[in-house]
Sequence to fold (242 residues):
Amino acid sequence: MPLSFGQRFPTFDSRLSARGRPPRDAVAAQWVMRGKDTGGFAGLPPTGHSVTLPGSDFLILSSGKIRSVQGYFDSRAVPDQLGLQIVVQPKGVGPFTFGTAIAVQSGKHTKPAAFSITELKAAPGEAEKIGDYSRQIGIELGGIPGFIGWVGLTIGDRMMTVTAWEDASSIETLRREGTHKEAIDAFMQGRIGDGGYTSVWIPSRINPQRVRCPQCRVMTVYETVQGHCRCGGTLPPPRPYW
Fold:
């Protein structure tokens, strides 16, 4: 038996009420919209996926003409079918601020020798534009020698990128060329952002990776045992450091 609204949301003080009788010239119609994502959704590139969206329209007629239309559909159906994540979370609770993240990895297992960190305070209405810059930079990073991995974070009006490198000298290519230089120029000229900084961090120590043996469940340093646990089991390969 389907759950009632009150059963689904027991903490809500829920009440249902009718909105009055429909007028005589009222028409209800169910429909199904079908299409293909060729132009992109919510600022993202096109996925090429097909979508099917059912819904209902309630029309009020007057003198044989449509006077008003009230439509209902599941707003989550389209992003779900496009393979997009639906994140439901508060903007902030107490001292905590929530946000989203995106990552790009080269697949290298090299220990990072340097990190470049960029932090930007987005001006009102600029988050999507800055996000477009960040996504394009993430794509271009794969062609830069020395690149290991990149993480982009958006938390409130704070937008940050953390990039791992095989050596600090590789960061100079990022500064001189491509979309990153274009974005920094836009920031310095006051065309994006209300403030921010760039920086380079050199780690003092990155410990070796440990993996759990699937047979004896012991956590082992992968590098020192060459992929085999002391119990004789084969260890799973470690994930990239960044």
About this structure: Residues 25-86 form a domain with the Nuclear Transport Factor 2; Chain: A, fold (CATH 3.10.450.50). The chain has a mean pLDDT of 86. DSSP finds six helices and twelve strands in the chain. Residues 127-141 form the longest helix (15 residues).
